[in-house]
Write a structure and sequence with these properties.
Elements: H1 3-15, E1 20-22, H2 28-36, E2 42-43, H3 46-52, H4 62-75, E3 80-83, H5 92-104, E4 109-113, H6 126-141, E5 148-152, H7 163-175, E6 180-182, H8 189-198, E7 203-206, H9 214-219, E8 224-226, H10 230-249, H11 261-269
Parallel strand pairs: 1-8, 2-3, 3-4, 4-5, 5-6, 6-7, 7-8
Helix pairs in contact: 2-4, 5-6
Length: 271
Amino acid sequence: MDQAAKAQAFKALHERKKLFVIPNPWDGASAKMLASQGFAALTTTSAGLAFVLGKPDGGVTREQSLWNAKLIVDSVDLPVAADLENGFGHTPEDAAKTIRQAAEIGLVGGSIEDATNDPTKPIYDFDLAVERVAAAAEAAHALSFPFTFVARAEGFLWGQGDLDQIIRRLQAFEKAGADVLFAPGLPSIEAIRTVVQSVGKPVNVVRGGPGPSLAELEAAGVRRVSLGGSLSRVAYTALKKAGEELLATGTFGFAEGILSTAALNKLMSGS
């Protein structure tokens, strides 16, 4: 598919009434693995990329993020969106620039959050947050294809604001032009249901640990479920356990049932 066809396919996924899962690869190999399993679209993970680079989450630049996104775009014939953090800058123009550059490297969607990456003032003031969303949405909708723009309200992750304040932001982001709404850290299925019922656009929920099932999320009206950095953490957990076994017992039980080099070569070559 060309970029326009991928964009249309991605838009259509959000227009269905059925929930879909959009997993988060962190490199070309993980993207190919997920594509081979039948997922309809992928989105990047800023945390997963940061770990690849040996950095903590939040330590990735715009250039590194787009390099990683292009690697994933070029690895699979699927719609790919990206976690674009806060747009890698504080101004509305920074947010718009990031959206335009994301489109230039083949992405068909992306999210921008209202977190500042400054622990002393973790969330943008309301008016500035809305202006940033409006600028990003305008840039997305000026493209020649339907770039799906996701606006994120990060207050719960930073202990900033209650559910009413988060909903107020999401409603303002919707009015500013966001195509999908996302509030990471919603504390319960009841809170998720309240958010869904309070807005008119599709809602994304991130999962990666204990909590509501996909069936429960779909019943609550959630349209899209992403996985954040959880799949990359699965891989690092397996690596940690392998190292611990080697040092503790000198055994190789971790290698039982692992994929063979031949199987991975076949997957990477697309054969």
